[in-house]
Amino acid sequence: MTQQINEATFLVLTAAPQSGYFTPARLSELATQFPDLPAAKSLSQDAVEFALQSHNSELAAPLAEFPFDVNWVDGANRRKKMLIADLESTIIEQECLDELAVVIDKQAVMVDITTRAMRGELDFEPALKERVAMLKGLPESALQDLYDTGITLMPGAQTLLATLRAQDVFCGLVSGGFAFFADRIAQRIGFHRFQCNDLNLTDGVLDGTVVEPILGRAAKAEILTAWAQELGLTPDDVLATGDGSNDLAMLKIAGMGVAFRAKPAVAEAAQYTLQHADLTGLLYLQGYSESQFQTA
Q1: Same domain? 6 vs 83
Q2: What burial letters (b/e) apply to 47-70, b meaning 16+ CB within 10 Å?
Q3: Cis ω before 155 (30° cut-off from 0)
Q4: How far apart are CA 206 and CA 204, in angstroms?
Q5: 5 lies in which domain range?
Q6: Residue 283 and residue 149 in one domain
Q7: I want to staple 279 with a disulfide (CB 3.0 to 4.6 A). Which of 116, 156, 161, 251 is the partner?
Q8: What's the pTM value of the predicted model, to 2 decimals?
Q9: Tens digits of per-residue pLDDT, 7-58?
Q10: What tens digit of pLDDT does each residue of 106-128 get?
Q11: What's the CATH number where 121 sits?
């Protein structure tokens, strides 16, 4: 994973939430093992950062052996003014089509298509159309049932939104998923705006098609750029996060593009990755400490 490092650099380590990993004893062990590191600044018991003059590439391999995320963050313009987030498997824990497949007893085939599409093995648009076609005849009430009983927020989502909004950060949701769910999640945790795909309905029943044009990989990057321009910002002012191959374009143009618990190919291509941390890891990457977190 290639990262561009400017003069002011922060090495940010983020462990699993509530793990309390970075105890004084563990920090002492790290200091002994990596004597070139300066004193750690504690962001919480689960996150620390080190202020460095440059990226020490020799640290990459040995640090990768530990159970925490390792990211080198450019100190310039570190705190972003806009968040653009994917919805499914990022802000929420589920893939909605996969969950709906349970209702129609087609979970195995649906999950297989979703997995291959998110890995980049299938083109996003035809894979989406194929999966949605399986839902033909499903009543809209099934979507509400899923939202009520089967959709859960990713840990850290509410804290992320509340903290960024308290800092006047614009928060947008951009999803290859569906407006039915995005609208409700946006209202629930405070996204300013959302844009996503939608399902065609006839008399309250899904007709098995998606409203055109379909929002895919290129569209996500275009929306990021358009929203930033509208607010007088540049892509460098944007924090983008997602997990699938259709998120890669927006991750690559954002000033801080973070692959969150992503598929291996996506994590490898992204500049920043979080596999251990929850969504509060996005705050630690920007230099926020737990004492600055807001709750909904």
Answers
A1: no
A2: bbbbebeebbeebeeebeeeebbb
A3: no
A4: 7
A5: 1-76
A6: yes
A7: 156
A8: 0.94
A9: 589 999 999 999 999 999 999 999 999 998 999 999 999 999 999 988 777 8
A10: 989 998 998 898 888 988 899 99
A11: 3.40.50.1000
